[in-house]
């Protein structure tokens, strides 16, 4: 329907925006028309920023978070507690934990969950890199901050089985409902979830 109302170039922008999470047909139309009609200079600035980021952002060689350098700021920081490693699903989880300000260890970002139906296995989650990090560092505790979904439970179980039993493994608990996503928790709930973590 869009192609009958809008020009091919406008339709292409709308279709591109609809590939983003939570952006539906109406939202993509509003955003496109606002940027092109009311704020074309903003559209150019956004396009340039995205292009620059796409060409220069990469995964940290250790934690797999997004960074401009080979090693991200958290992994390279001498003030972080390297004995504690928090395993999370996404950068959004990392942001939520960092903004709450209570965790001072380091992270490993899975960038997903094990999901055979979606073709996502241990290799896609870079668990070989995680295993090497655990081997190389003097880690005393691994915290699994993984959402309690079916895929999250599978992922947490798989990771717990590959870790040496001499290392303490804990799982965040209180306040995270089954099927819930970490990124949507408020800071107090997130802090309680970490404080109430249970050993595996």
From TrEMBL:
ZnF locations on chain (C4-type): 60-75
Q: Which CDD domains match?
A: TOPRIM_recR
Entry keywords, A to Z: DNA damage, DNA recombination, DNA repair, Metal-binding, Zinc, Zinc-finger
Residue ranges occupied by any Toprim domain in the UniProt entry? 83-177
**Keyword Zinc-finger included in the entry's annotation:** yes
Entries under SMART domains matching the protein: TOPRIM
**Zinc-finger: present as a keyword of the record?**
yes
In terms of Pfam families, this protein maps to: RecR_C, RecR_HhH, RecR_ZnF, Toprim_4
The entry lists its GO molecular-function terms as: DNA binding; zinc ion binding
* Any one biological process term the GO annotation gives: DNA repair
Function of this protein? May play a role in DNA repair. It seems to be involved in an RecBC-independent recombinational process of DNA repair. It may act with RecF and RecO.
Q: Which family does the record assign? A: Belongs to the RecR family.
Q: What is this protein called?
A: Recombination protein RecR
Gene source species: Francisella salimarina
């Amino acid at each position: 329907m869009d192609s009958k109302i809008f020009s091919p170039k406008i339709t292409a922008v709308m279709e591109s925006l609809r590939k983003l999470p939570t952006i539906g047909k109406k939202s993509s139309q509003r955003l496109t028309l606002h940027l092109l009609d009311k704020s074309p200079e903003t559209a150019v600035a956004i396009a340039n920023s995205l292009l620059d980021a796409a060409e220069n952002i990469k995964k940290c060689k250790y934690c797999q978070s997004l960074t401009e350098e080979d090693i991200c700021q958290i992994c390279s920081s001498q003030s972080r507690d390297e004995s504690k490693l928090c395993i999370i699903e996404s950068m959004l989880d990392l942001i939520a934990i960092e903004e709450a300000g209570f965790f001072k260890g380091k992270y490993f970002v899975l960038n997903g969950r094990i999901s055979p139906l979606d073709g996502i296995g241990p290799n896609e989650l870079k668990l070989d890199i995680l295993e090497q990090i655990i081997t190389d560092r003097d880690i005393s505790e691994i915290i699994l901050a993984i959402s309690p979904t079916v895929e999250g439970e599978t992922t947490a179980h798989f990771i717990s089985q590959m870790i040496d039993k001499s290392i303490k493994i804990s799982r965040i608990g209180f306040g995270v409902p089954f099927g819930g996503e970490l990124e949507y928790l408020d800071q107090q709930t997130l802090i309680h979830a970490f404080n109430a973590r249970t050993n595996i």
